[in-house]
Amino acid sequence: MSQSTPARVFLKGNEAVCYGAIEAGCRYYFGYPITPQSEIPALMSSELPKHGGQFLQAESEVASINMLLGASACGARAMTSSSSPGISLKQEGISYLAGSELPGLIVNISRSGPGLGGIDASQADYFQAVKGGGHGDYRMIVLAPHSVQEMYDLTMHAFDLSDRYRMPAMLLGDSLVGQMKEAIELRPRPEVELPAKDWIVTGKGERSEQRIVKSLFLGDGELEAHNRHLQAKAEALRANEVMAEEVALDDAELVLVAFGAAARIAKTAVRMARETGLKVGMLRPITLFPFPERHLARLAETARRFLCIELNTGQMVEDVRLAVNGRREVHFYGRPPGTGSLPTPEELYEQIRESY
Amino acid sequence: MTMQTVFERPKSLKDVPSHFCPGCHHGLIHRLVAQNLDRLGLQQQTIGVASVGCSVFLYAYLDVDVIESPHGRAPAVATGAKRVQSDKFVFTYQGDGDLAAIGTSEIIHAANRGEAFSVLFVNNTTYGMTGGQMAPTTLLGQESATSPGGRSAERDGHPIRMAELLAQLDGVAYSTRVAVDNPQHVRQADKAIEKAFRLQRDEGRFAFVEILSTCPTNWGMDPRQANARVAEEMIPCFPLGTFKDTQSQEGNQ
Ligand SMILES: Cc1ncc(C[n+]2csc(CCOP(=O)(O)OP(=O)(O)O)c2C)c(N)n1
Ligand code: SF4
Ligand SMILES: [Mg+2]
């Protein structure tokens, strides 16, 4: 797709992920069935072959993340998608991707837990995504779309970041942004310069040096140096790649902090509050890692109070508190995920009044 | 008098000291892999997939590109690799803990899909690297770090025969079991590996070679005793032979 006016189409969020991935040059998909992300494998199975790519339904989430590992080590843009229980199974592979410095996209259209939980919109996997659900001292790029357009755009962006930093990237959505339909623009892939993949395994060919993709480092001091290198990449992400949307923040006395589906509902509540004369704004983290710490630190100088809203019992709020660092009160409102437990804008408006 | 070289290091094998214990067959099996890569002209187009076990340092000995896989997942990693680099030669090298315990799902489904790579399965009836615990391949009565008094069928089940098991699957072109405990067996193992590699190179077929191996260290034996145990105890439970060969009339014996 490289036409001058991007096509406008009416798509589900999950479908937008597929078109974004294909536009970004992803040609390999590996996955295992689970609700509420089933549109992704279904569409990829019919679309990828048309683009010379391959769709493979794996025997498990464990296998699919490792197929992605193999494909990525061989230089391909590759992805997998799943939902919470399946993402838990992928954690070992994610840790190996991080340790072996392999790019790759993992889409989590998350659902509620723990255990089998339910299939309702939920943000219960925030900790797992940003704090490292797998073993080892690693970080992963985590992007949180709140609209169908962002499902498309951020999928492309995630691939670019993942390649640039040689780090796995996760698109963290939920059944709300995955299942809803909106009209979006199928924009062409942004033109960005990326480092050459001079590390992939291809067979030695003309090379005399072998290439090795690995995460085991047993030499004296080797692993410490490797971990320092991984942390330097995380630091560079913090310095250069933070994304957040600012809503009515200029004179805001109360700042809401919410991401993804919760931010959509909170946006309506902010509008209601403004209509009744309350000086309320919202910061919406788009990158959950790197987290918009500096945005929050800056806001802590002018705002009176913060109200963090999540579709869980309080996870991101811990990072908001760290960033605000005791300078202002940070309130929290969230509901444990479950059927019929999505908060309404009116409900959030009441919370705004209480915290104001 | 002219001198003739009758034995030399395969090009694909690096000239480095080995970390394997004295009497361990891993080193010999590495050599057989290297010599077949040479023989079939595959070194420059090979992607090896190493597993977790005493053979994790595959790349330290074989001069080919290598991906190190999580424990048991080598067949999934190789699946992703081969589907991207379909014109390359891909093989996995896995131990019995790796392939026959934690990785059973990955090996069965890769074999069933008939993925176009080759598998070298090194069965030493134990978890060598972690200190000799009981594996699914541990023989009945065999003492191990976690089967005091010997493996018991009632408590631990029976040894699992992977070459026979995988021969049941339609995706498999060739499934065989060999040993390297005497020169004749080494020659047979060499031929089996060559055949498996040819099946991939020439026909894009999945082949499985189980190689009976030693672990003198964890068996509590000296190299000579360990080597003798292969014929005395292992082969009676793990018979040598070919269990599937789609190329040969005598297959499925
Ligand atoms: C997920 C996971 N579980 C356990 C281990 C520990 N571990 C390392 S090697 C190994 C078994 C190796 O045995 P085998 O595959 O038979 O290879 P050998 O050393 O005998 O050649 C185990 C259990 C690990 N690395 N990862
Ligand atoms: S522990 Fe066993 S398998 Fe490992 S190198 Fe030593 S003898 Fe070989
Ligand atoms: Mg073993």
From TrEMBL, chain A:
GO molecular function: 3-methyl-2-oxobutanoate dehydrogenase (ferredoxin) activity
UniProt xrefs under CDD domains: TPP_PYR_PFOR_IOR-alpha_like
Start and end residues of each Pyruvate:ferredoxin oxidoreductase core domain: 252-346
Domain Pyruvate flavodoxin/ferredoxin oxidoreductase pyrimidine binding: 20-238
Name of the molecule in the record: 3-methyl-2-oxobutanoate dehydrogenase subunit VorB
Source taxon at top rank: Bacteria
Keywords on record: Oxidoreductase
EC annotation from Swiss-Prot or TrEMBL: 1.2.7.7
InterPro entries: 2-oxoacid_oxidoreductase, PFOR_II, Pyrv_Fd/Flavodoxin_OxRdtase_N, THDP-binding, Transketo_C/PFOR_II
